[in-house]
Amino acid sequence: MSVADLRQSSDPARVPSGGPVGAVVYRPHAVSSRFFRSELLLIFGRRRNWVGGLILATVPILIAIAVKVSPPSPGGGGMNFLNQITQNGIFVALSALTLEMPLFLPLAVAAIAGDTVAGEAHLGTLRYLLTVPVDRTRLLVVKFGAIAVFALVATLLVALVGAMLGLALFGGGPVVTLSGTTLPFWTGAARLLLVIAYITMCMTALGAIGLFVSTLTEQPIGATIAILVLALGSEIMDAIPQLSVIHEYLPTHYWAAFGDLLRDPISTAAVVPGIWSALAYTAIFGAAAWARFGGRDVTS
Amino acid sequence: MSSPAFADHGTVQAVRDPAELAISSAGLTKRFRSGQVAVNAVDLAVPAGSVYGFLGPNGSGKTTTIRLLLGLIGPTSGSHELLGEPMPGGSARVLPRVGALVEGPAFHPYLSGRANLRRLDAADRTVDPATARVRIDAALDRVGLRAAAEKRYRHYSLGMRQRLAIAGALLRPRDLLILDEPTNGLDPQGTREVRTLLGTLAATGTTVVLSTHLLSEVEQICTHVGVMHLGNLVAQGTLSELRARSAARAEVETPTPERAAATLRVLGLSDVSSAGGQVSALLGDVEPEKVVAALVHADVPVRGFAVRRAGLEEMFVQLTGEGFDVSG
Ligand SMILES: Nc1ncnc2c1ncn2[C@@H]1O[C@H](COP(=O)(O)OP(=O)(O)O)[C@@H](O)[C@H]1O
Ligand SMILES: [Mg+2]
C-alpha cells in the first residue's frame, strides 16, 4: 500500500441515522415476580435438589415403617414423640422433624443458601445478571426469598410425608400433649402447623447466614460446608455446659424449642426468644450480605 | 457532561461533543488488590453509531475495562458515562439499553439454551413479559441456535455457547453492544456470521464495541479503533486517522541518489537512506508535493516517487511492542 495521492478520505464513521441515541425511555414495572419465579424454578427444577428432597422424605418413611414393624413398648424410655406414634400417626411427622432438625434440614438449607450467590459467581452467570441489570439489593432479596420458600417447602415435605403416612398406618385421633393433656385431633394438627412455621423461621435464619457466607466466595460447595460447620459448631457449643454464658446467643440454641408448641398450654419461655433470635440472625446476616455484596467487585 | 475525558492522552481522537459519545471515560483506572494496575487512566471516546474495535493483546486490560464500564467492578479512580448517563448511578436506566458479553459465555449447564435465555429475560424488569417468547425465538434465530435451543447448555460446543451469549445480548433492541471477544471459539463460518450480524446491527444505528486481539477483525468491520497495551489506551481514533498517524516515508527512484538525498536533507526530511537507485526518508511534516517540486527544481531525474506508510499491523506492533497473538 502506498502512492502519494493516497490521502485518506474523510472520516468513514457512520453517524446514527435516527435522533439522539436512546430516545426511548424504559419504565421498570413497579413489581415483577418473574425473576423470583425463575429463581424458584432454578431451585426446584434441579435434579440435585430433588435427590435432597428424597433424602429428607426418607426419614419419616423409615420411622413409620420401623414403628409399624416393631412398636415401642408403652411407657418405655426413648423419644417422647416416637412412643406416641402407635396412638396417633401425626407423631410420625413430629418424630421426623425432631430427628432431621440437627443435621438433615440444616444440610439442605446450607446446600441451597451456599449456592445462591457463590453458585452464580462460580458459573459466571452473576456478571450477566448484574448487567441485565439486576440491582444488587434486588438480587439479594430474591435470593433470600427463595431460601425462605425452600426452608418452608423442606419442612413441609418432612412434616406432610410423616403425617400422611402416619395417619395411613396408625390412624388419627386425639393428640396427647407433652403436658399429659389431650387435644382434639384438629387442634393437634394446628399445633403441627405452628411447629412447621417455627422450624421454617429457624431454617430461614440459617439461610440468611448462608446467604452472607455465599457472598464471600465463588465456591458454592465451600460455602455450603462453611454454613454446615457453623450450624454444627453452634450445636456442639450449645452442648458444652461450661459455655452456658453464650448459649442463648447461638443460632441453633432455640431450635429444639418447637416441642414446647405441643404443651398445654403452649410454653412460650423458649419459643418467643427463639423467634426473636431467628429474626435477629436474619436481619443481621441479611444486612451483612448486603453490605458485603453491595459494593463488591464481581470479577468472576 | 463536561470533563477532560477527551483531552489528548497520546490519542488522535479529537475533542467531540460528549452528547455524541456512546461511551466516554475520564482517567478510568483499576488497580487490583494484588497491586496490579490493569487499567491505567483510560480516556475512552466511543462515538455513537460507530463500530469500535477495542484492540489489544491478551492481558492488556480489555476485559477489565469492560467490567468497569458495566459497573461490575468499581474504578480505583476516574469516571465514565454510558449513552450520556453517568455510571454507576445511571445503571438502572442505561444498562437495559446495553447488551454485553463479558469474558466469554456463562450459563446454567443443566438448563437448555432457551431456558437460560428465559431466565435472563425474566431478570429484566423493563421488558414486556408477554413478548418474551417471540423475542427469545428471534434472538435464537439471529445466532442460528433455534434448532439446538432445547439442548442442555452443558452439551453445547464452545461456538454454540458463544452464540447463546450473543443471543442473550440481543434479547431486546439495544442502543449499545459491548462484546468481549465475541468470535472466540467460533469456526470460520460462525465468525463470518457474527461479523455480518454486527454489520446489520450497526446499520440500524446500534453502537458496537468489539473487543478483540485480532487486527484482521478490526480491519474488516470497525470504523474506529482503540488500542490497549499494558492497561493503557495507547491510540484511539478512526481507522483512517490511525493510518494517517503512522509514520510516512517518501521514496524516490532515481539514477542520482546522492543528489536526491541531499535535496531531501535540505528540505528537512530525516532518516535519509539510499540503496541502489532508491532514496527514502521520513516525511515528517513536509508535504509530498513539496518534495516532488524540490526534486524537480534541483534537476534530480525522478523515475518514481511514492509515499509509503506502515501498515496497521506494523503500527500496532510498534504501539504494543509485540505481535497481536502474544499474551502480554
Ligand atoms: N481479579 C483480578 N485480580 C488481579 N488481577 C487481575 C484480575 N483480573 C484481571 N487481572 C489482570 O489484569 C490484567 C488485564 O486483564 P484483562 O482485563 O482480562 O485483559 P484482556 O481482557 O485484555 O485479556 C491481566 O494482567 C490480568 O492478569
Ligand atoms: Mg479478555
TrEMBL record, chain A:
Q: Which PANTHER family match?
A: INTEGRAL MEMBRANE PROTEIN-RELATED (PTHR37305), MEMBRANE PROTEIN (PTHR37305:SF1)
Q: Where is the signal peptide?
A: none
What is a single Pfam family found in this protein's UniProt entry?
A: ABC2_membrane_4
Q: Does the keyword Phosphoprotein apply?
A: no
- Output this protein's name: ABC transporter permease
The transmembrane segments are: 50-70, 90-118, 139-172, 192-213, 266-291
Asked if the keyword RNA-binding belongs to this entry, the reply reads no
What does the UniProt keyword field contain?
Answer: Membrane, Transmembrane, Transmembrane helix
Please report the organism this UniProt entry assigns to the protein.
Rugosimonospora africana
UniProtKB/TrEMBL annotation, chain B:
**Gene Ontology terms, MF aspect:** ATP binding; ATP hydrolysis activity
Q: Output the Pfam families linked to this UniProt entry.
A: ABC_tran
Q: Which InterPro entries match?
A: AAA+_ATPase (IPR003593), ABC_transporter-like_ATP-bd (IPR003439), ABC_transporter-like_CS (IPR017871), P-loop_NTPase (IPR027417)
Q: Which residues form the ABC transporter domain?
A: 23-255
Q: Which branch of life, at top level?
A: Bacteria
UniProt keyword terms in alphabetical order: ATP-binding, Nucleotide-binding, Transport
- Give the family per the record: Belongs to the ABC transporter superfamily.
* Name of this chain's protein: ABC transporter ATP-binding protein
